[in-house]
Amino acid sequence: MLVFIGNLPGNSPLIELQHFLGNHEMSVDYSAHRHEKAGSHFLLIKTNSFESSDDLIRDLNGKTFNSVKIEARKFIQRNKKQQEWTKEERRTSQLELNFI
């Protein structure tokens, strides 16, 4: 399952993001993209189980990172050609992390 971690400040060093997620074991495959207008990042984290995903969401949703409230939720893939967009899965940039 993929978990969306959003509203991460775009100017935060990678080491700070790793420290922020430090309580969770993961192997990391970094694909960083930054949307210049928004100046923010998001993470897509792959977990091994629904239970791990639920734990991660519970741990991170609403937590503060660099004075910004973080959003954590299940990731929903958006395909504008095949489905109507509910704006639920809106995002600006991406880092991908894999739990081990």
Question: Which SSEs are present, and which pair or pack?
Answer:
Blueprint: E1 2-9, H1 14-20, E2 27-29, E3 40-46, H2 50-60, E4 64-65, E5 68-69, E6 71-74, E7 95-98
Parallel strand pairs: 3-7
Antiparallel strand pairs: 1-3, 1-6, 2-7, 4-5
Question: Overview of this structure, please?
Answer:
With 100 residues, the chain is of the alpha+beta class. It has a single domain (2-98), classed as RRM (RNA recognition motif) domain (Alpha-Beta Plaits). The chain has two helices and seven strands. The protein has helices spanning 14-20, 50-60, and strands at 2-9, 27-29, 40-46, 64-65, 68-69, 71-74, 95-98. The strands form two sheets. It has a five-stranded mixed sheet with strand order 2-7-3-1-6, covered by helices on one side. The chain has a two-stranded antiparallel ribbon with strand order 4-5. The longest helix has 11 residues, at 50-60. The two termini are 13 Å apart.
Summary, kept brief:
This protein has 100 residues and is of the alpha+beta class. It has one domain: 2-Layer Sandwich (Alpha-Beta Plaits), CATH 3.30.70.330.
Oligomer: single chain
Task: Name the structural class.
Answer: alpha+beta
Uncertain stretches of 5 or more adjacent residues: 27-33
Coarse morphology: globular
The sequence of SSEs as H and E is EHEEHEEEE
Predict the CATH topology: Alpha-Beta Plaits
Sequence of strands across the biggest β-sheet: 2-7-3-1-6
CATH architecture: 2-Layer Sandwich
* C-alpha termini separation: 13 Å
**In CATH, what is the homologous superfamily?**
RRM (RNA recognition motif) domain
